[in-house]
Amino acid sequence: MNAEAADIVVVGLGPAGSRAAAIAAKAGYRVVAVDRRLEAGRPVQCAEFVPAMIERDVPNVTAVAQQKITRMLTFTEATDCEETPDFRGWMIDRAAFDRMLADEAANAGSACRYGTSVVAIDFDGTVHTSDGLALKPRVLIGCDGPRSRVGAAIGQINRALVDTRQLTAPLIVPHDATDIFLSADYRGGYGWLFPKGAVANIGVGVMIEDRRRLKPMLAALFASLSASRRIGTRPFALTGGTIPVGGRVGSTGRLGATQVLLAGDAAGLTNPVTGAGIASAVQSGALAGHAAADMLSGRSGALDDYDEELGDIFDAALSRALLRRRQVLAHYGDGRRPDATALAEGWISSPNYWA
Ligand SMILES: Cc1cc2nc3c(=O)[nH]c(=O)nc-3n(C[C@H](O)[C@H](O)[C@H](O)COP(=O)(O)OP(=O)(O)OC[C@H]3O[C@@H](n4cnc5c(N)ncnc54)[C@H](O)[C@@H]3O)c2cc1C
Asked: Which pLDDT tens digit goes with each residue over 138-164?
């Protein structure tokens, strides 16, 4: 396909973009999807947990699963440990997961171009890429993550962000739970140990204003876990990345005659407390692909319906998480910090979180 002839341009081939591109291409539209990465899913910037319910949207998730998760353990200020039984999901190989979804997009007929960045978007909807293309699609779908260039072009920007840092290390004792570490030190975030067979992802996230403290905070968490002989002393992979935690931004817009939709992190669908966003990226990507196809088939109102549907599906959970996040953050200031009760009540394992 001549790229300039695309009906739909998808920016970003993460879970949201791949799913959007697959659905729109299956509906018979000419789809060009671009990603600045050289290959799908790499480098991995993820703790790699997905809830079991993702099987509704990705029935073949077990093909990339590394191990089952059955429980969550929440440690508050490194002392109290509370178990949440029946917390089910999978630890996945995130690179393989993204590659699987990207293959589905390509197999459906999308032209997927890697190593191609969107470098500018004009007011009339023309999309300029790093390899010199000027694409003028009828629909532009922004699945380009937390700092979405497509979102910025329509004035929809994720303003509240968490920054993260993560190491992978050998896991000495096999484990079936995601471990969460709550501490007043981790302002606006938390620490984690997520087991993945013989290894574990150990990370810390904090509000972006505190990002300079991430390195020593992760070093301290890592040292305490290896001192208690849960993990080895030598990490072998370092990653990190940004997570939007401000809730949903407007998910549709217009640039000249080009209709614009946002999905996944670009639309602010990541949970502001847990930072989980893979499942919502897949789900919203599918809806965006359907909405783009519906719009091009002449169904008026398809874009408004898309925004409304995102609201119906995600707003209740996002609003609750935003409220709990704000409540914990309100305990900081004038030298004050949240105590263990305030931290615990702001986390999903507490009945008060759901009250
Ligand atoms: C350290 C970390 C740990 C996490 N752990 C979990 C977890 O355990 N479970 C969970 O559910 N969620 C987790 N998340 C969140 C999850 O990774 C995201 O919510 C999810 O990836 C969102 O998918 P997406 O498709 O919207 O965006 P992304 O996966 O971010 O994909 C966006 C794509 O757009 C591309 N792109 C960006 N800008 C451009 C451009 N200008 N031109 C071309 N391409 C561009 C990028 O290269 C990228 O491939 C974690 C996030 C981080 C940072």
From this structure: 999 999 999 999 999 999 999 999 999
124 CA to middle of ligand 1, Å? Answer: 27
Strand residue runs (E) in the chain: 8-11, 31-35, 49-51, 65-69, 71-76, 80-84, 89-92, 111-114, 118-121, 127-129, 134-135, 139-142, 161-170, 177-182, 190-196, 199-207, 237-244, 252-255, 258-262
pLDDT single digits (tens) 279-333: 999 999 999 999 999 999 999 899 999 999 999 999 999 999 999 999 999 999 9
State the pLDDT confidence band at 96, using cuts at 50, 70 and 90.
very high
Ligand 1, atom 17, residue with closest C-alpha = 46
DSSP letters along 172-199, please? SS---EEEEEE-TTSTT-EEEEEEETTE
Residues in the chain: 355
263 CA from centroid of ligand 1 (Å) = 11
272 lines ligand 1 (CB under 6 A): no
Q: Is the CB of 67 under 6 A from ligand 1?
A: no
Contact criterion met (CB below 8 Å) for 240 and 165: yes
Residue 278 CA: nearest ligand 1 atom is: 11
Nearest protein CA to atom 12 of ligand 1, as residue: 276
| Both structure tokens of 157 | 């920007």
The letter for the amino acid at 140 is L
